[in-house]
Amino acid sequence: MKLTLGSVKKFPIELMLIGFIFLLLAITQQAVLMLAVVAIGVAVAGLLPFSRSIQLIIFLIPCLAPFSTNPYLPVSLATLIYLAVLGRYLLTEGGRSQYYLPGIIAALVLIGFELLHIIYNPVVFSSKTIRWLLLFLLVIMLIFDKRKYASFAQLRFAFLLGFVFSTLFGLLNQVFHPEVVYNTNVIQRFSGAAGDPNNFGLFCLLLVFFYLPSHPRERISISQLALCTALLGVGAITVSRSFFLVTSFTLLLYFVLYFRTAIGEMVYRSVVFFAVLVAVSFVLYWHGAATELAIFERFSSDNAADLTGARSTIFVEYLTLFTQLDLSFLLFGAGINGYLGYYNHFFLNNNVFTEVVGPHNTYIELLVSFGLLGSFVFLYFFYLCFKAEKIRTSTQQIYAISLLPLIVFSLYCLSLQNLGKYTSYLLLLMIILNTCRAKHE
After folding, report:
1. Which residues of the chain, if any, have pLDDT below 50?
2. Where exactly are the structural domains of the chain?
3. Would you state the torsion angle of the CA atoms of residues 124, 130, 136, 142, taken in this order, to the nearest 10 degrees?
4. Cβ–Cβ contacts within 10 Å for residue 190, how many?
5. Of the candidates 440, 436, 438, which has an alpha carbon nearest to the alpha carbon of residue 388?
6. Cα dist from 48 to 86, 178, 193, 301, whole Å
């Protein structure tokens, strides 16, 4: 597969323009620039071909943090762009589209589950729920629409472009507006314009596997290797335990799956790989550099709560409270947009936590949001998403190597709460397209 960053038929000038406005924002910190981004985004949704709108919403995934910190609205300004894209889709595309019906039905059942929570958990009845439903509706229609308005290569390039500008935003922000750290023991972590180091690391690692071949023994070009190496280097500055653990496991798994038809070659390359790894480790140890690396310091604790960033403690408290609630909460949950307020009401009253705390784990989030019964419905919906794409593309065989992005996302779900974020469903769209992408794409 030959890597051509300009593989899109028409270069997305509007994305470059938005990206440069982001860089100006990083330098000047003038919030009014975000209004210009929103205006351009709405114009793209209304005036350009719909394929450009999809590229835009994918481009924005790594760049959403600046939208949330605005003085104009209590919600993210990016919501206005996504709603404009939804409106454009309903007006010009939705009426003449054909959908994978089982997937649409499963999605509507999920929406029904969420609205059902209003009956016994009034917290769900909010504008936040309405926004989530509308944006969830946009993504599920894109997933189950039998027409695809942009190729995977186009969306992948838009995602890469967004990641590049997100990285530059973070670097410029550190140069012109460095964060003052009074505690010298605090490890500074990089998150670009994503707002969270773990999310930034997730985007980085997904891009690596989006650009690597999705078929065994397919040729890897020098440009692909260079790009993936650069992405991994950027991801390393997040100083994220999740990034290093997931990267190590998935790259090794990719290596095994890529050479699965040539055992002798795989053994030879494995020996070379581990020899290089041992040599690098020895050099670091000899110079004492290993003990000075921030990531080694983050792995040095012998306490489970410290190693997981208190996630193990949070997991236990959420699971314990879940098992103590009424049958309705056990079966149907408290709602994606209701569990946080409901559970933290108990936590704060019982002095379990001193502030509002999310589960930081998508699997426990699924359980407390949809309950035991709803979780099975959600997993079936998840399965139908992939089945719909397999039918649409008439894919005969899905290679295990093409599932690496799904494995990356699943592992990151152990440290992120994704159900309430519409960007998670857009990432799911990208992962689905990658799974069934053609050879050499």
Report:
1. 1-9, 181-182, 284-293, 295-296, 298-300, 303-307
2. 1-96+148-186, 99-144+302-441, 200-300
3. 160
4. 19
5. 436
6. 14, 38, 26, 53
Q: What is the C-alpha separation between 313 and 148, in angstroms, rounded? A: 43
C-alpha atoms less than 13 angstroms from C-alpha of 318 in its C-beta half-sphere: 28
- 8 Å CB contact between 162 and 37: no
For residue 279, give the amino acid letter. Answer: A
Q: Which two tokens stand for residue 247?
A: 């990267």
- State the pTM of this model: 0.87
* Residue in this structure with the two tokens 């009424």, named with its chain if needed: 326
Place of tokens 């838009």: 158
Distance CA 394, CA 193 (A): 37
Q: What integer pLDDT is reported at residue 105 of this predicted model?
A: 95
What is the structure's pLDDT at 261?
57
- The whole-number pLDDT of residue 410 equals 95
User: Residue 99 — φ and ψ, nearest 5°?
Assistant: -120, 155
> In whole angstroms, what separates CA 368 from the centre of its chain?
21
SS (H, E, C) the chain: CCCCCCCCCCCCHHHHHHHHHHHHHHHHCCCHHHHHHHHHHHHHHHHCCHHHHHHHHHHCHHHCHHHHCCCCCCCCCHHHHHHHHHHHHHHHCHHHCCECHHHHHHHHHHHHHHHHHHHCCHHHCCHHHHHHHHHHHHHHHHHHECCCCCCHHHHHHHHHHHHHHHHHHHHHHHHHCCCCCCCCCCCCCCCCCCCCHHHHHHHHHHHHHHHCCCCCCCCCCHHHHHHHHHHHHHHHCCCCHHHHHHHHHHHHHHHHHHCCCCHHHHHHHHHHHHHHHHHHHHHHHHCCCHHHCHHHHHCCCCCHHHHCCCHHHHHHHHHHHHHHCCHHHHHHCCCCCCHHHHHHHHHHHCCCCCCCCCCCCHHHHHHHHHHHHHHHHHHHHHHHHHHHHHHHHCCCCCCHHHHHHHHHHHHHCCCCCCCCCHHHHHHHHHHHHHHCCCCCC
Give the HSE-up count for residue 235: Cα atoms under 13 Å, Cβ half-sphere: 25
